[in-house]
Amino acid sequence: MSTFEDQIEQSTDQASLERSVARSHEIEQAIDQDPSRFRVLTGDRPTGNLHLGHYFGTLRNRVQIQNRGVNTWIVIADYQVITDRDGVGPLQERVLSLLTDYIAAGLDPEKTTFFTHSAIPGLNQLMLPFLSLVTESELHRNPTVKAELEASEGRAMSGLLLTYPVHQAADILFCKANLVPVGQDQLPHLELTRQIAQRFDRRYGRAVKDHPVFPRPEALLSEAAKVLGTDGEKMSKSRRNTIDLCMSADETAKVLKKAKTDSQRVITFDPQNRPEVSNLLLLASLASGQDPIELADSIGDKGAGTLKKVVTDAINDMLAPIRAKRAELEANQDYLLDVLRQGNERAAQQGYDTLDEVRQAMHMLYY
Ligand code: TRP
Question: How far is the C-alpha of 61 from the C-alpha of 66, rounded, in Å?
């Protein structure tokens, strides 16, 4: 692509990002006025432990949305695990561990529906009509698919990796969610989801009393803080620089003791020039609610050792109730399986209901 086209693409990206941010602010206000207008769907792949990057980035936000009274659905995306790997690993263990993290962090099975892809036939069946509504070249142009392909370093791409954004659209649309709290990187998926909803409507008309079958879901961009790992790089499992929600207080202290800092003794909050030190201050700030600059001032010339103690205490204090809840849940696998069974039942029923409307619109209802 020429630089000129690059610039156009970037500026439209920037413009649409700004629109999405502005729209997110409006939605936040609308939630306060009437949470019942919204249904949220979001989720994660069950591929590893949730860490503080997830917690500060999305999880804490989801709990708040739930507690503001928005009906919330969470997909534990087990079919997404097989997009880019041959085996599933210890999947049941990971699914239950993810569910444990969710509930320990404050998501409440009384208010939130947890479900797994593999248990929801209606969701998965939507994949067929949806695939007919997108072109193969659109799939190849999807930025996330492109990025994952590049990261795969020449390994063959499965058909499911190519089409998983469509499956993700089915996650959102089968339960008629109209709000998806996501990071910026997921915006193209949301755009595709809206296109699918719209194209379905255009092609098949409005099934019931002139109502569209599917809503047009919008992104809710959070102003979530992006925290780094203990080495100052992006926090991610593969870099082994995470602080996981399931770690003990001692493990957390140990990991933070080894965290990277710099050679300046006086602690200052300066993300540009001192990313590692500033990230530790940010973590302490997010965990304690204190201002990172004030935290830095109070540590002053006491150096990195004191900084590490401050951040360890802040995180361990914040995580203490989550850990206690986690331990309680871990000792009660039957309860976890029960929560999942009930969520899956509710989601499966919703899937059948939506599928009925879809069949009706497509003239494929044979009774
Ligand atoms: N793709 C998300 C992830 O990588 C998980 C996910 C699956 C999801 N389906 C979704 C997120 C639907 C939002 C909406 O973790």
Answer: 9
Give the CA diameter of the chain.
Answer: 78
Which protein residues touch ligand 1 with a CB less than 6 Å away? 41-45, 75, 77, 80, 168, 171-172, 180, 182
For atom 2 of ligand 1, the residue with the nearest CA is 44
Cα–Cα distance between 235 and 52 in angstroms, integer?
8
Helix, strand, or coil (residue 40): strand
The region of weakest confidence among 176-185, 219-228, 246-255 is 219-228
Answer yes or no: are the C-beta atoms of 123 and 170 closer than 8 Å: yes
Q: Which of 39, 40, 44, 182 to mutate to test the pocket of ligand 1 (most atoms within 8 A of CB)?
A: 44
The structure's pTM equals 0.92
Other CB atoms within 10 Å distance of the CB of residue 322: 18
Give me the mean pLDDT over the 268-292 stretch.
96
Distance CA 175, CA 194 (A): 14
